[in-house]
Amino acid sequence: MAYKSHFKFSNSQRNGIFLLAILIIVFQCVYAFVDFSSESVRPDKIALERFRQQVDSLKRIEIDKNKPKVYPFNPNYITDFKGYTLGMTTEEIDRLLEFRGKDQWVNSIKQFQEVTKVSDSLLDVISPLFQFPNWVTDPKPKVSRVNNSKIQSQTVFGLKTYDQKIDLNSASTQELQKVNGIGEKLSDNIIKYRNRFKGGFISEVQLQDIYGLTPEVIERITNDFAVKTPRQVEKINLNSATKDELVTIQHIDYEIAHYIIEQRTLRDGFKSFDELLKVKKFPIQKFEIIRLYLTLN
Hints:
Elements: H1 11-33, H2 45-66, H3 80-86, H4 90-101, H5 109-116, H6 120-126, H7 134-137, E1 166-167, H8 173-176, H9 184-195, H10 215-224, E2 225-226, E3 236-237, H11 243-246, H12 254-267, H13 287-290, E4 294-295
């Protein structure tokens, strides 16, 4: 049985196919080489510039949102970490800490530069953030007198004398709440912290450990309160303490204790507490609290 081929075309069919192929080729060439686009659209430069400015503005807003906010602060309470974030060098921070270690206070922008020796350019950046206490910026001496005409000790610049202050180890929540910035919550935090230790506070510097207290509020507290009956502690000899003895001190863990002993060995004993500031991973911001528990004897 013979099969009929489906691919046989008549002459007219072949001519049609050939014509179709020609047309396809022509259309392809026209599509490839003829520009069908209309006149080029000229961009609106003014609109583009406005759009670019809007994008840049949004970028700046986002960058500003992500930047850490720096609030006004008392330069006397600059820690190593704070100084580093402000752009101060280690030497400049050490000069300030050494100055404060002598129980001296920076009371002006000029004095801050004299003590730290920071550059004029850095001072121009950070000095607008300085916030000194009111008794420095607006001193108004007050004099109190008793009825028998004997002059009591003068409260200079609004500061109370030691005798005028309330014992922090016996202060009530009501007395604490008289301090500007101390509410019910913070006064409770102070009392709870005090009650953690039999005998209460050793020193006012321990207020730094209480959550929620800013340096400015602590300064106001110490203007009205003092630790007059400090808790008695048995101090640990820094130059002979074991690792287990060191970790009993607040803010010192086994790792820091290891580095303290390592540094002690290298120095052949510590000559001063300030040498602790060179110990690896030492919590510098807690230095004043840690030294309450130490002796060099």
